[in-house]
Amino acid sequence: MADQKKLKKSAAKAYDKAEDAVTDARAAVAEAKRRAKKLAKKSRPSVKPLENALDDAASGLKDAKKTAKGAGQATKSSTTTTPAEPRSIYTPPLPDIDETSVQLPDGHDAHVDLHAQTLVALRALARTKGVTNVSRYTKAALIEKIEQA
User: Fold this and answer.
1) Amino acid 125: pLDDT
2) Are the C-beta atoms of 98 and 115 separated by less than 8 Å?
3) Residue 118 pLDDT more than 70?
């Protein structure tokens, strides 16, 4: 009987320890979830505003197509030509062209795209404009010097 009481007492202690371990594990899991959620908020930006902006742009494009189609049907009844569809709401800007006027050997002025020229041609052009030490400049620096001259 004494052995049975000892066994029951040790079993109860083991059970209590197991319950404490489970409670601690659940608390640790809850803490880990809370920290993971906090870290997730910090690490990635919110996608909702971007999704809303994309939806607005898509609906604007659909509205523009409907308007263009409606206008096309209105003009179709009066004329037989079909209207042109809008290519896009967003068009990229055109690149800037650095042009300078150059006097040709025959005396006429001509416009030259400086970025399209070779370094040798730019050096010759710089010499005609009066720039000195042209061999030490890079292409970009030569273009600046030619524009300043």
Assistant:
1) 87
2) yes
3) yes
